[in-house]
Amino acid sequence: MGTASESDFGYVLSERKAFDETKAGVKGLVDAGYKKVPSIFRHPPQKSEKKVSNLTDTSHVIPVIDLADIHKDASKRQGLVGIVKEASQTWGFFQVINHDIPVSVLEEMQNGVKRFHELDAEHKREFYSRDRTKPFFYNSNFDLYGSQPALNWRDTFKCLLYPDAPKPEEIPAVCRDILLDYSKYIMKLGILLLELFSEALDLSPNYLKDIGCAGRVLGLCHYYPACPEPDLTMGTNLHSDNDFFTILLQDHIGGLQIRCNDKWIDINPVPGALVVNIGDFLQLITNDRLKSAEHRVLSNHVGPRISVACFFSPSVEASSKPFGPIKELLNEDNPPKYRETTFAQYEAFYVAKGLDGTSALAPYKFELGK
Q1: Which pLDDT score, from 0 to 100, does residue 250 have?
Q2: What is the pLDDT of residues 148-195, one digit of tens each?
Q3: Quick check: 356 and 147 in contact, CB under 8 A?
Q4: Whole-number Å distance between alpha carbons of 160 and 179
Q5: Best CA proximity match to 316, nearest among 220, 212, 244, 221
Q6: Which residues form a coiled coil (predicted)?
Q7: pLDDT of residue 358
């Protein structure tokens, strides 16, 4: 006979399996009229932690960087490199405006995500999968069977945007055109950001691009339904991203927060802006010069909240080659802090660990003095 904890785990697993088999996601619960958050979504108390108000404390305002004329004005570009460097070392987050992606494209991207997630359940179910190799699929909680304390109140579809986007017929018609269009804009912005990151590290502008930091781009398109008991669950649990960097489109609802000095700070939506954040793998190869940041998304009575996260990582081929701290950034006073690993190994560890609130980078760090 199993112990109580084994019995509890078995019950939780069966509950998660039952939820998974509906293939309707969190939206299915809302559509079914749930007025209470099911137990598998209930997180340990954590949202009562004091939140810093960005309105009264200007030291906790995430930078908003204006990219206008960056290609025409060398002195302005140099100034922006300094701001990107400061933001990437201090916060791991910043926002960008005047990024050359039309507002109409941003709005249509959000609308396309909403249209997909609000398809009728039968139509949407055909895209439901936990096969991460598929070029387009939808599910709820990638780590549903992982070790995280509770599930997150969100559904997601994932689409490979670069280099091998799905065939048009593999993408649902309701979001097909805008996904293919958006990917072109995002690649252009991503290359510019890699140039700025490279220059912030005193490397040649093409350095990070040339070593494969934009070899693959995945779009994760999140749908956070309105929650009947938002204080009991999370939209997305505390985590840092596993990639080189992420470009995030968020709507007006808000809820994204980063942790800094044990305080939670809002990243308030700015009309027309995109959020950029450093991922773990960029922190690893820059030997902590640029730092990923822990962040989360609060659930809300208001919804749905829509966000689109584009993750920049090595190509499938490059994912099996070792990455370590960039040699040009190392010296006697700054030895390597991380052991080499492949992105494929790191990603597999990250996925297996799930969003359990712990750092996936920690096991790759050399112990002090060794």
Answers
A1: 97
A2: 789 999 999 999 999 988 999 999 999 999 999 999 999 999 999 999
A3: yes
A4: 10
A5: 212
A6: none
A7: 80
pLDDT band at 328; cut points 50, 70, 90: very high
Length reported for the chain: 370
- Distance (Å, rounded) from C-alpha 209 to C-alpha 236? 30
The structure tokens 């780590």 sit at 143
**Maximum distance among all Cα pairs of the chain, rounded to whole angstroms:** 72
Strands (E), 4-45: none
pLDDT surpasses 60 at 47: no
Whether the CA torsion 68, 72, 109, 244 is positive or negative: it is negative
List, for residues 56-100, the tens digit of each pLDDT value.
Answer: 454 567 899 999 999 888 899 999 999 999 999 999 999 999 999
Q: What ranges do the domains of the chain cover?
A: 49-364
Please name the residues in contact with 111: beta carbons below 8 A apart, sequence gap of 6 or more. Answer: 178
- The half-sphere exposure of 319 on its side-chain side, counting CA atoms within 13 A, is 18
| 49-364: CATH topology | Jelly Rolls (2.60.120)
Task: State both tokens at 309.
Answer: 């996260």
Displacement of CA 177 from its chain's centroid (Å): 23
Preceding omega of 63 cis (within 30 degrees of 0): no
Banded model confidence at residue 55, pLDDT cuts 50, 70, 90: very low
Q: What is the secondary structure of 124-135 as a DSSP string?
A: HHTTB---TTSS
By the 10 Å C-beta count (0-12 exposed, 13-18 middle, 19+ buried), 282 is classed as: buried
Average pLDDT over residues 306-324: 96
Report yes or no: 154 and 253 within 8 Å, Cβ to Cβ: no
pLDDT digits (tens, 9 = 90+) for 291-300: 999 999 999 9
Residue 16 sits at φ, ψ, to 5 deg, of: -65, -40
DSSP character string of 209-261: HHTTTTSEEEEEEEEE---SSGGGSEEEEEE--SSSEEEEEE-SS--EEEEET
Helices (H), 46-101: 74-90
CB 244 within 8 A of CB 318: no
